[in-house]
User: Which sequence fits this backbone?
């Protein structure tokens, strides 16, 4: 089992009358190679749920076990290191660093993990090739379209073949054609590299490409757990 | 490490305007500090030189009972007997006599100190001869020639070539009186000294006071106390100009302290400005820092990166600042800065004499070192909070 989530909840606010339960008693198992989407309207708790899994937020109750290791019990330093070594992140607004080229954006997390510069170069080139933007390697983010930028973001996330790739609304800023292309790319990487994907979306048109759909509403997963 | 450097430098270059403004701010602050310190140092040095060279000297050797405790009175009966061979060998030591007298002219009379000078040595060491407005400086062989101040000449109603009666008390207790011829008129810039002192040569002074040969009231050094040490004996004492002119020394110390205080205030303002600029530039990049944190980049790496950016900016600014500061100080050393505009055209008087208002800057390498250390220390301190704040806020993921 890659990820085990048990009775997870996250509550914002201290006083009972203003408390918001963003994530409410969710239990979920994710195995290596899963290709899952969390679907739900804005404010349903998707982002909070992904942030909890990534160790960016600490749960109010419950457990998150990643390869049997309890993320919620780790220190902040350990969680940062855990993210660097185990999780690939893909953002809604790409979050590329504007002063770095596509190549350098992919290179950034690798430089902290790997010392062998030849290996780093190989991984970057392979990742850029897999997402189909090898020819844009020396371009800066502002010289690329939204779809191309998202591909760079994907290349950065997959370059080191992490155990889990989390994507928060990765297609929200893209037109429907490009959005389909990105999800197809996810699927291709899932199949070819056996990468585990867990991403959130509020676009129901994308769910036909997904193996497992988790429907989320008011902090509760209402369907697709099994 | 190489990638970290590349990342930091690329970050620095991505916003030219922001980096340029910070760079200009830091360089200007550096120049301002060096300029201010150099001005202060040069002005102090020049003032000291003028005060000491014009009249009082850097240090004096005298009989320990010659001055009273607060240097307001003299006892002309306390003289020093100096070995003539030693005195003639010491070219940078001038012997003097100081005689309290009354001087009488056709229109008025006044009390003053008649100073007996060694003309040859004074010409080499002091700048009294440069103040002569009319006539010529004293000569060793002249008998009873006197140089008086411009103000005194007007008060007494005398011109160059006129005769004056000088009255006093000789060392043997008898009344001393003699006729002196005004050989020159001296201009101390209209200061009190023009009415309070007059000059004659040693021989005329000794003759007036019935003083034995080779006796002096003071030996004056215009460079250091060291040249007076060979003459120091049990009954004599050496004091420097600060002790002899405490009021002048105090006012110069005040000016110096004020300039240092001003420098500190400037540094504090610069430090606050730099901290604010860094804070704003880091706050602008909160999302970027947050993204780094999310993808697992450690806070230490982020902090180091921001630190390298700031350090590179500071070092570059200091490089520019050092060059410009050196050029500016050089300019003011060639073209002295005339401070007359601050006095409304009035001469600057200190200790009864006029001080040159044009300050010629002096290069002093220590100031560059001090300014570099001050800017680096302040920018380092100023960066601590912005970096800490930026990294801390990046961890609060909504």
Assistant:
């Amino acid at each position: 089992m890659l990820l085990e989530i048990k009775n997870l909840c996250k509550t914002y606010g201290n006083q009972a009358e203003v408390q918001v339960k963003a994530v409410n008693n969710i239990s979920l198992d994710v195995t290596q190679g899963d290709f899952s989407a969390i679907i739900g309207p804005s404010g349903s708790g998707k982002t909070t749920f992904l942030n909890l899994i990534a160790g960016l937020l600490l749960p109010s109750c419950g457990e998150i076990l990643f390869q049997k290791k309890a993320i919620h019990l780790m220190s902040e330093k350990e969680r940062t290191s855990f993210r660097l070594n185990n999780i690939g992140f893909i953002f809604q607004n790409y979050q590329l660093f504007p002063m770095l080229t596509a190549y350098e954006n992919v290179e950034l997390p690798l430089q902290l993990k790997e010392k062998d510069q030849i290996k780093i170069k190989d991984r970057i080139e392979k990742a850029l090739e897999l997402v189909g933007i090898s020819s844009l390697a020396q371009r800066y983010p502002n010289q690329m379209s939204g779809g191309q930028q998202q591909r760079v973001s994907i290349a950065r996330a997959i370059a080191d073949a992490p155990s889990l790739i989390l994507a928060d609304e990765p297609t929200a800023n893209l037109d429907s054609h490009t959005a389909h292309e990105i999800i197809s790319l996810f699927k291709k990487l899932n199949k070819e590299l056996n990468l585990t994907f867990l991403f959130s979306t509020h676009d129901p048109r994308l769910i036909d490409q997904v193996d497992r759909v988790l429907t989320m509403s008011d902090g509760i997963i209402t369907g697709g757990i099994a | 490490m190489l990638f970290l450097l590349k990342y930091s430098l690329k970050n620095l270059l991505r916003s030219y305007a922001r980096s340029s403004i910070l760079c200009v701010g830091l360089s200007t602050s550096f120049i301002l500090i060096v300029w201010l310190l150099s001005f202060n140092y040069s002005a102090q040095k020049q003032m000291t030189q003028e005060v000491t060279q014009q009249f009082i000297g850097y240090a004096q050797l005298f009989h320990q009972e010659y001055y009273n405790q607060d240097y307001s009175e003299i006892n002309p009966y306390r003289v020093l007997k100096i070995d003539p061979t030693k005195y003639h060998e010491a070219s940078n030591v001038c012997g003097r006599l100081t005689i309290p007298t009354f001087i009488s002219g056709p229109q008025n009379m006044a009390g003053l100190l008649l100073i007996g000078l060694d003309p040859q040595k004074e010409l080499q060491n002091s700048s009294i001869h440069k103040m002569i407005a009319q006539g010529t400086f004293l000569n060793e062989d002249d008998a009873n020639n006197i140089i008086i101040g411009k103000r005194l000449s007007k008060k007494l109603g005398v011109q160059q070539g006129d005769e004056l009666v000088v009255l006093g008390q000789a060392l043997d207790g008898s009344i001393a009186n003699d006729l002196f011829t005004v050989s020159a008129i001296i201009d101390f810039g209209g200061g009190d000294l023009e009415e309070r002192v007059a000059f004659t040569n040693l021989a005329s002074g000794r003759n007036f006071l019935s003083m034995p040969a080779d006796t002096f009231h003071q030996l004056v050094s215009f460079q250091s106390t060291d040249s007076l040490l060979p003459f120091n004996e049990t009954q004599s004492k050496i004091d420097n100009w600060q002790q002899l002119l405490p009021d002048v020394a105090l006012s110069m110390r005040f000016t110096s302290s004020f300039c240092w205080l001003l420098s500190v205030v400037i540094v504090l303002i610069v430090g606050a400005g730099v901290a604010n600029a860094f804070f704003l530039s880091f706050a602008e990049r909160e999302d970027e820092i947050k993204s780094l944190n999310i993808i697992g980049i450690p806070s230490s790496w982020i902090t180091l990166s921001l630190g390298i950016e700031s350090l590179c900016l500071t070092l570059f600014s200091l490089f520019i600042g050092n060059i410009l500061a050196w050029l500016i100080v050089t300019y003011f050393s060639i073209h002295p800065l005339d401070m007359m505009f601050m006095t409304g055209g009035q001469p600057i008087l200190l200790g009864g004499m006029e001080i040159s208002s044009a300050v010629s800057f002096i290069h002093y390498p220590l100031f560059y070192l001090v300014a570099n250390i001050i800017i680096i220390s302040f920018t380092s301190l100023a960066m601590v909070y912005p970096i800490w704040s930026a990294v801390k806020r990046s961890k609060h993921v909504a």
